[in-house]
Amino acid sequence: MPRKRILSETEKRELISLPNTDQEIIWWYTLSEDDIIFIRNSTRGKINQLRLSIQLCYMRYPGISLAINERPDQKILNYVADQLQIDNSNWENYHSGPNESRYDHINIVRKRYNYQNFTISHHKNCVDKLRDSALQTDKGFILARELMNILREQRILLPSMSVIERICAEAVTKAEKEIYSLLSSSLTKDQKYALERLLITGQQYSVSTFNWLMQSPAAANPKHILIHLSKLKVIKKLSLPLDLGKHVHLNYLSKMAREGKQMTSQHLSDFEQNRKYATLIAVLLEIRETITDEIIEIHDTIMNSLFKDAKNKQNRPSDHIGVQNGQLF
């Protein structure tokens, strides 16, 4: 089964992008006095001190170590070098010359600042930490940004973007299952049976009751108000709990309703039980609200039409009387 994709390529690039403005660079890459003392005491040679400081800065933000042969962003390099009063024009690759290796610098920073690599043991913990947020939104970008901030706060170096996406996708899947269970567990056996009946297409009708409920009127007239009232009666007869859906974030209710409206009754019938009932509930809650709004709108349209007709009829007799009066005088 293919992995769930919840991040676009553009979002991935944005999440891992480096600060660009002077204000951002100053915020993230200003070295403290203790940092500078540590850097100068931990390694010899100005080029090694500069490389060590760059690894420290990249670990702080975006939360990674500089890759082999990767040259740091020039703005960041200039700013860090200025703080250390080092000429950065002789920046070289880690593998060249007698200089200390990239791994030496990474290990020095990790030991001093307690940074650690992301491991499989962190995976489940990260999914759990995203639970509350995932119950409010399924937007991968929002969840990934929160996850990356959590890892930075804990001084855990970021894993690959594919791992970050997988963690967020798992958090969303767990949240969805929790929401399905929450909505479904509020129903009695009879209510579940009644919801199942909505999906059945009877011999006398070409559509199921569920599809009929989703149909909107083509025009505003008294007949459609009666149809809408009939639909509200069907929904009311289900006797759904009054607080149903109150503990589920509107983002998820709207998403489930949107998905449910795009499904046929047969497709909904094939859903896993909890997901099926939860989707039906979300659609019915939205239909009930929409129908109520449409009844008010149709009523206003009809009343405005009646008012205009009455006004026109009132004006016509007045004109006729005026003519008669003109003939008399």
UniProtKB/TrEMBL annotation:
Where does the DUF4158 domain lie? 6-171
Pfam family, any one: DUF4158
Q: Which InterPro entries match?
A: DUF4158
Name of the protein in its database record: DUF4158 domain-containing protein
User: What is the organism of origin for this protein?
Assistant: Chryseobacterium potabilaquae
Question: Taxonomy-wise, where does this protein's organism fall, top ranks first?
Answer: Bacteria, Pseudomonadati, Bacteroidota, Flavobacteriia, Flavobacteriales
